Amino acid sequence: MMMRLFHSLGVYRMNDERDIDNKPTILVVDDTPASVGMIQAALEQENYQVLIATSGEKALERINFIEPDLILLDIMMPGIDGYETCLQLKSNEKTRDIPIIFLSALSDTFDKVKAFSIGAVDYLTKPVEPEELLIRVRNHIRLNQLEQELILANRELDDRVNQKSSALIHANAMLSEKEELLRIVYNLSPIGIGLIDLDGRINDLNLALGQFFGFSGPSDYASYSFFLDSNFSNQIISRIKNSETLEIEGLYDIDRIKRKNLYRTKKGGSVYYQMKIIPCYNSKTDQSSGYILFLQDITEWKQKERIMRDKANE
């Protein structure tokens, strides 16, 4: 039934009995029987599936029923000529990527510039040489296949890039949220936390550590170094420099340090503290890059402990 429909429309197949599953399909649009016969014979030798449309109108009417791999399009035909047929094919999203080779008789006035500018990929002069026809058809079909494969590969690559970009944006958003949460925990922690360099100088500290030492801003601790603080013994300093993790308790004499003007303090007298210092390492060089310091004022706890101990001894 479909074949009768094609024939009635002036679009018909050659060698209908052959298996066409894996054969490129060529649509020949030409109203000259001799030219069509010669082209058909040459293409059949190479096992191409050949479709014929006897006019530009017939080709345009039924292009949706066929999916040719290449179109051989005569320039001079009654009704719609080859140029207009090409323009309409290129304006159709379904057919605009099909390569078109123009056919032009020696006696025809053929505008090559116009042909290429409206989308043709090549042209042949009639009568066509079979060998030249086959070479050009084969080359342009392969080129078009490669172009479509490249377009598909680029689309798949774009999809993967977009997916990864979306995942990266989501991951960065989650990372930003976690960083903000960590910053909040860092700043509001009741335990003093600080980042110190290899010379014992403070690079950053949270509110609790600043309150312990009485620092109100970077200018207060710009000249301060843990390694020069006499509250920390030489033994502790050497252990720090040996990249050991320290966990110590001690008595911090604020008044004595205050008198040396190393920094300001809100408190006087002495306070008990618990301190932990953890070495940090550069992930690339595996070398120590500084320390994280955790410090807590345990004076109140020590006082309660002493009261309980005194009561127990009464």
Report on this structure.
The protein is of the alpha/beta class. The protein folds into 2 domains: 151 residues, Rossmann fold, CATH 3.40.50.2300; 129 residues, 2-Layer Sandwich (Beta-Lactamase). The chain is 45% helix and 22% strand. The protein is built from 11 helices and 11 strands. Strands 1-3-2-4-5-6 form a 6-stranded mixed beta sheet, sandwiched between helices. Helix 2 packs across helix 6. It is rod-shaped, with a radius of gyration of 43 Å.
Give structural attributes.
single chain, alpha/beta, Rossmann fold, Beta-Lactamase, 2 domains, 11 helices, 45% helix, rod-shaped, disordered N terminus, two-component regulatory system, Response regulatory domain-containing protein, phosphorelay response regulator activity
Strand content: 15-25%
Mean pLDDT: 80
CATH H-level homologous superfamily name of the largest domain: Response regulator
CATH architecture of the largest domain: 3-Layer(aba) Sandwich
Could you give the distance between the termini?
115 Å
Major beta sheet, strand line-up: 1-3-2-4-5-6
Number of strands: 11
Radius of gyration (Å): 43 Å
Q: How many domains make up the coordinates?
A: 2
Low-pLDDT residue spans: 1-9, 13-20, 255-267
Helix tally? 11
What does the main sheet amount to?
Answer: 6 strands, mixed
Spatial shape: rod-shaped
Encode the helix/strand succession as letters: HEEHEHEHEHEHEEHHHEHEEH
Helix content: 40-55%
CATH class wording of the largest domain: Alpha Beta
Structural class: alpha/beta
Under CATH, the topology of the largest domain can be stated as: Rossmann fold
